[in-house]
């Protein structure tokens, strides 16, 4: 007799065998079930232990109270968002934990005591709907800014519910545009139509969990009936479309991101998609005088432009299928372009010169683009925002480690500036100073870092020191004022250090790309070089040196712990990536393969496995007692990274503390009290370890 076995049965057997083999290789896969009963019981047990170790002390309560006082203070700057004739602000305080979205007039704001009108009360909305809503922003239709799309997140997750809101009636539009929870990308075309990229059902998302289909949705029509405009590849990161509104004309852009650092872009013109003839790695920053302003991540040898340059491309040439780019600004060895925005008559370019901010205004003349330093501040971080093509007014923020934040207003034509707001001083900044040093990494590269310390510090190697780093995704770490860090760390005798390691964007794309994929170890080596330099200068010693980082920075500190445990006595790893064998299979992880590489590729895994924290824990090695924390509602970096790392450390009997906030998303906290709690836990831990 012949036994017949169906192909479907064989498939089930194969899947079952593979799952069993994987479970034997990784005994903590069950912690990847975010809300699984067993997993959540484990989380509750760890949270209980963390509170017992860190939160049951007078020090914790003092730190919590000091932090909450800062977060809830009415003296904070009410940063404005400019929309039409109003300035808007999102505000949280002791009586509004979830926040108020409110507005005032330009004149009232300038008075220093604005009369605010509440547009949307998130606390009241959450109470009325019995939902833990977290406000994630509002996109309003130009130029009236009356019809808006509100993004609301449950517990702080990246995925949001989208609802149409009318600022005239201060209410949600009955029967208006509405999308269920998803990682949607939505933008206005006009009052009765939207570009929508969302979860349309099976097959509509990429392997990274983001939309790959773009549709044009007309008011009154069912979303399922919205005609398709574009469909990207399932292995791309995401696709979307948006309209850029200007007084002269509107420009519709469709894009697909094959990976995290590349994008293909089309102009939608006369219902045709016209490819923008640019390198895939170039990014669109703004439109100025009918020209696309693009940033280059790589050299463009065809036109003679260097990596990191800013270029302009006439839209008229794009419509003819030509590039015809011109140089706007080129970087230097020590200067990188960070931000681009526009006013009526100028481009505004923010740069970092050896990690110090400068802002230039640029004008296109017969002699080409002419740049002039606006000289807004010296030795400070400067952030420009609220620019508009209707005039030449702009707002900017100035701060530094020891400089409380100041909100300023300027004009690119008159070059006049004046102060709008000054944040209070929360600690005795005069007692401290800031120094910038450079450490020599393993390959000879000079890596800058900042040290904030008391002026009368003794260089005896005994100072509790916290080293913060990130080193990824072309993100630049800049000096900034932190009242919480000043009160809870500096004034208590601590030293704060900010590392500008490779992988970041402090010196442009090349600084980032130097630590990509197979060269990832360079970011860690830079971090170790800074730690060793601090020890050599006798600012601190391994007994008193702690490290902290979040997300990619959590990977950094996790890797530092397993690779060089003898250098540190405290490790904080926030919402981290740690299992680098499976990171691309968890939530948005597949979108980061351009950063870390594909662990399914055998050659790439040979590199990744040398630093993957989860795979480099050894029972016989001695590690400092580490503190890992994450959020159940983080739908970007899976909480299982931290869970599994801690479970393996406990199995190997290593000292470790773990806390998981049930809300919070990738930020780790969703309101001021949660933020204060996490901060107090962190500093309680640091003082236990490093004093």
Describe the structure.
This protein has 691 residues and is α+β, with helices and mostly antiparallel strands. Among the domains are: 34-68 and 439-690, Alpha/Beta hydrolase fold, catalytic domain (Rossmann fold, 3-Layer(aba) Sandwich); 331-389 and 391-424. The protein is 22% helix and 34% strand. The chain has 14 helices and 37 strands. The strands form 8 sheets. An 8-stranded mixed β-sheet has the order 30-31-33-32-34-35-36-37, sandwiched between helices. Strands 5, 6, 7, 8 and 9 form a 5-stranded antiparallel β-sheet that branches. A 4-stranded antiparallel β-sheet has the order 1-2-3-4. Helix 2 (37-55) crosses helix 14. The longest helix has 19 residues, at 7-25. The N and C termini lie far apart (78 Å). Mean pLDDT is 94; it is low at 1-23.
Which SSEs are present, and which pair or pack?
Blueprint: H1 7-25, H2 37-55, H3 58-71, E1 81-83, E2 86-93, E3 96-105, H4 106-110, E4 117-121, H5 122-129, E5 133-140, E6 147-154, E7 160-166, E8 171-172, E9 178-182, E10 185-190, E11 193-197, E12 213-218, E13 228-231, E14 238-245, E15 250-259, E16 262-269, E17 272-275, E18 283-288, E19 291-295, E20 310-314, H6 315-319, E21 326-329, E22 335-342, E23 347-353, E24 356-365, E25 368-373, E26 381-385, E27 393-400, E28 403-411, E29 417-422, E30 432-440, E31 446-454, E32 465-468, H7 483-490, E33 495-499, H8 509-513, H9 521-536, E34 545-550, H10 552-563, E35 570-574, H11 593-596, H12 602-608, E36 626-631, H13 640-651, E37 656-661, H14 672-690
Helix pairs in contact: 2-14, 3-7, 3-14
């Amino acid at each position: 007799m012949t036994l017949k076995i169906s192909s479907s049965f064989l498939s089930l057997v194969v899947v079952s065998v593979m799952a069993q083999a994987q479970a034997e290789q990784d005994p903590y896969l069950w912690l990847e079930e975010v809300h699984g009963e067993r997993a959540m019981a484990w989380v509750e047990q760890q949270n209980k232990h963390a509170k017992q170790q860190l939160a049951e002390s007078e020090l914790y309560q003092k730190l919590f109270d000091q932090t909450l006082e800062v977060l809830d203070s009415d003296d904070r700057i009410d940063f404005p968002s400019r929309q039409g004739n109003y300035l808007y602000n999102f505000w949280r305080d002791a009586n509004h934990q979830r926040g108020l979205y409110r507005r005032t007039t330009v004149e009232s704001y300038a008075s220093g005591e604005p009369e605010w009108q509440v547009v949307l009360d998130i606390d009241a909305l959450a109470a009325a709907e019995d939902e833990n809503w977290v406000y994630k922003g509002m996109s309003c239709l130009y130029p009236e800014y009356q019809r808006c799309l509100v993004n609301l997140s449950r517990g702080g997750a990246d995925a949001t519910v989208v609802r149409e809101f009318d600022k005239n009636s201060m209410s949600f539009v009955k029967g208006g545009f509405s999308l269920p929870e998803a990682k949607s990308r939505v933008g206005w075309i006009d009052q009765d139509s939207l570009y929508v990229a969302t979860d349309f059902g099976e097959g509509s998302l990429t392997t990274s969990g983001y939309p790959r289909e773009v549709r044009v949705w007309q008011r009154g029509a069912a979303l399922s009936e919205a005609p398709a405009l574009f469909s990207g590849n399932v292995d791309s990161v995401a696709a979307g479309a948006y309209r850029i509104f200007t007084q002269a004309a509107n420009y519709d852009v469709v894009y697909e991101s094959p990976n995290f650092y590349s994008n293909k872009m089309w102009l939608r013109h006369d219902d045709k998609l016209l490819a923008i003839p640019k390198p895939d790695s170039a990014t669109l920053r703004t439109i100025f005088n009918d020209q696309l302003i693009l940033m280059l991540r790589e050299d463009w040898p065809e036109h003679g432009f260097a990596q990191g340059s800013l270029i302009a491309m006439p839209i008229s040439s794009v419509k003819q299928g030509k590039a015809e780019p011109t140089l706007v600004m080129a970087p230097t060895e020590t200067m990188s372009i960070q931000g681009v925005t526009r006013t009526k008559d100028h481009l505004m370019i923010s740069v970092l010169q050896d990690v110090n901010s400068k802002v230039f205004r640029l004008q296109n003349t017969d002699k080409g683009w002419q740049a002039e330093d606006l000289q807004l501040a010296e030795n400070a971080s400067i952030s420009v925002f609220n620019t508009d093509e209707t005039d030449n007014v702009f707002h900017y923020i100035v701060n530094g480690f020891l400089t409380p934040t100041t909100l300023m207003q300027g004009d690119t034509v008159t070059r006049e500036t004046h102060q709008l707001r000054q944040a209070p001083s929360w600690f005795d900044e005069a007692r401290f100073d800031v120094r910038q040093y450079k450490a020599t990494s393993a390959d000879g590269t000079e890596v800058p870092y900042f040290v904030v310390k008391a002026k009368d510090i003794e260089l005896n190697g005994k100072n509790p020191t916290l080293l913060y780093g990130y080193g990824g995704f072309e993100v630049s770490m800049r000096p900034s004022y932190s009242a919480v860090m000043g009160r809870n760390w500096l004034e208590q005798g601590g030293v704060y250090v900010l590392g500008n390691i490779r992988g970041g964007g402090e010196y442009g794309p090349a600084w980032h790309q130097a630590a990509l994929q197979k060269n990832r170890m360079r970011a860690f080596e830079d971090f170790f070089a800074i730690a060793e330099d601090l020890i050599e200068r006798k600012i601190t010693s391994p007994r008193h040196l702690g490290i902290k980082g979040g997300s990619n920075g959590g990977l950094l500190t996790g890797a530092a712990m397993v690779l060089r445990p003898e250098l540190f006595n405290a490790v904080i790893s926030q919402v981290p990536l740690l299992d680098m064998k499976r990171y691309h299979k968890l939530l948005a992880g597949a979108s980061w393969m351009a950063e870390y590489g594909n662990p399914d590729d055998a050659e790439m895994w040979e590199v990744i496995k040398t630093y993957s924290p989860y795979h480099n824990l050894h029972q016989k090695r001695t590690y400092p007692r580490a503190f890992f924390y994450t959020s159940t509602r983080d739908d970007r970096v899976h909480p299982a990274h931290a869970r599994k790392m801690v479970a393996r450390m406990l199995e190997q009997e290593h000292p470790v503390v773990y806390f998981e906030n049930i809300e919070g998303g990738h930020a780790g906290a969703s309101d001021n009290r949660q933020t204060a709690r996490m901060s107090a836990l962190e500093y309680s831990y640091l003082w236990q370890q490093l004093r």
